[in-house]
Structure formats: C-alpha cells, structure tokens
Amino acid sequence: MEQNEIYTNVVRIISKHAKNEEALKSLNTETHIINDLQVNSARLVDIVLDFEDTFNLEISDDDADKISTIGDAVKLVKELMH
Amino acid sequence: MQRFWGYLNLIWFGPLFILVMRIVGGYSCPEKAAIRRRLDAILEAHPGRPVLLCSNHLTMIDSMLLTWFLFDFKTLVLHFERFPWNVPELQNFGRNPLLRFMCYLGKCVYVERSGSTESRRLSWAKITYLHTQGEFICVFPEGGRSRSGRVATENAVYGVGQLVQDTPQTLVLTAYVRGIGQDQYSFFPKRGETFFLDLRVCPCPISPGRRGQKDITMSIMHSLEAMEQVYFATRQ
Cα–Cα distance between B157 and B163 in angstroms, integer? Predict the structure, then answer.
C-alpha cells in the first residue's frame, strides 16, 4: 500500500471521531488528533482497532501510545506493514 | 490509610449525608429496600468475588446516591469494603482543595483521562489492586454525565473492560438510577426528586486484548441500555 493510500485511510478513520469540523478542512501530518481534531481520548482505542482491521495488522499498546498526530499514525502503520 | 480515614469519616458524615439528602434534597427511592434485598441475595450467591458496580450517569452526586440507595448505614459500618471506590476525573474533582479532601474521605482514586499514559496506568493499577483486595468499585462507563439524558453507548470508556480483564472473577453489577423528573443531565437532581433504581448481574464474556476490553464494556453498556428501555417502557 502506497503512503498516499495509507494517509487517506488514516484520515478517513480518524475523521469519523473528530469533533472539530473546522480542523478537518485543513488536515496535514502535523494535525494533533486530540488537541486539534478534538477526538475524545476514549475513542483512540476505536481508531486503533479500525487501523488494525483496515490495514490487517496488530498494534501493541506501546505503539498505540506513540500516536499523537496524523503523521504519527501514518508512520506507524507504514512501519508495521513493511 | 485512605480507607481508615474514610471509615472514620463515614461514622459522622454518613448519617449527616442521608439527613441532608432527605431533608434538603427531599430525595427518595421507593425501590431501595427491594434492591438492597436483591443485592444481598446476589452477593450471597457469588461469595468472594470482587464486585464492580457500573452505573449510568446524569448528575454529579450519582455515586453518593447510589451508595445510599444500595447500602444501609449498618451494612457500610460492618462491611466498609462495600462502600465503593470511585474513579472521578481529576479535572472535575481534584482541583478544589475542599472537594479533593472530601473525595479522599469518600474513597476516590483520581484518573486523568487526557493525562499521560503513566498517570492513567498508575490510577488503574491502584483501582485494580483495591478491586483484588475485595473492595467494591463503582464506575460510570459513559465516562461522564450523558449529554443526551440517555445511556450514551457511543461515549463508552473501555478502561472498565480492562479492569474486568485484569480480574476475570469480577462480579459485574449494572445499576440504573434516574430521577423520575430528570430529562437531561444536571449538577444536582431536582429538589424533591423520586428515584427509579434497578440492579442486574451483567455477564461479561472475557476475551483478551483491546478488542476484548471493548466487548466487555459493550456488554455493560447494553445491560444499561436494556434497563433504560424498561424504565421508559414502564412510564409510557
């Protein structure tokens, strides 16, 4: 899977849980999932589960804790897929 | 140590609290005696299991009301482990020194949901320890007061599932408490409020991992939803 495809899927998954719709219009790899998109911290588990289903991989708790921005998520998924 | 001070506090604050709730609040719960008998029967049927109480959440004093409705004063004096530990959010209850002191005496372990992983792990380690020691734990799996006034399954916090996973012998009880006049969430219930109360054993299938935590939590949420449906059906 290409980086662009990973990015698109990551954004699609995270966007479902975003409360700040304005921030969705200007997404980039630096966008903070909790601070900028105002995703409820409890929903991060759903996001990680969605990543696992979509990309067919397993994410450890330690790896999941490293996800703060969209870029972190894309980087982690890419690393785990290769 | 916290348990010890909490016990001493119960002796004088318990009766005062009930008096204030009855006289100032005008609160009552007609099902109270029947539910207490039901709880006693459940505990007798499941001896020695750690108990996790999971409730819906509409007001800031839900945990205190629940404790009052579920246990008489004598029971709490003789079995202080049944006075449930609560897991309030630090931002809500930990900033004001007086509130913090009262929460300390009222068996609370703070959690900072948006805090560091270490801080959250420490809070859950404390709760898990207390749970395995036979102390009752009370949690609100919705993570906060429901803004819709209904059980907010979409806001479920999966930490409750983790607690059950870590202690698989846990007896999970779901409690639905609601003032008859409570349409939305609020700080306090309305004055003179009469409360509906229901209590069930919630069987939770235990499976590992993050997905298992979600499944356990969803079992609890579905039990609360079912109780809510019964509540509204009987009031139509």
Answer: 11
**Cα(A50)–Cα(B84) distance, integer angstroms:** 35
Q: Cβ of B158 and A61 within 8 Å?
A: no
Alpha helices in A1-82 (DSSP H): 3-15, 21-24, 44-55, 61-65, 70-81
Residues 108-147 on B with a CB inside 8 Å of A are: 113-114, 117, 143
Output the DSSP codes for B82-132: GS-EE--BHHHHSSSHHHHHHHHHTTB--B-TTS-HHHHHHHHHHHHHHHH
Distance from CA of B156 to the nearest CA of A (A): 7
Encode pLDDT of B186-229 as tens digits: 999 999 999 999 999 999 989 999 999 999 999 999 999 999 99
Number of structural domains (chain B) is 1
B12 or B202: which carries more pLDDT confidence?
Answer: B202
Beta-carbon count within 10 A of B189 CB? 25
CATH code, A15: 1.10.1200.10
Q: Which of B113, B155, B210 sits opposite A49 (nearest CB)?
A: B210
* pLDDT digit string, tens, across residues B64-73: 999 999 999 9
Range of the domain at A20: 3-81
This model of the complex carries an ipTM of: 0.81
Dig out the tokens for B66 from the structure: 């629940």
Token output for A38 = 């105002």
Query: With 80 as the cut, is the pLDDT of residue B95 above it?
Result: no
CATH number at residue B110: 3.40.1130
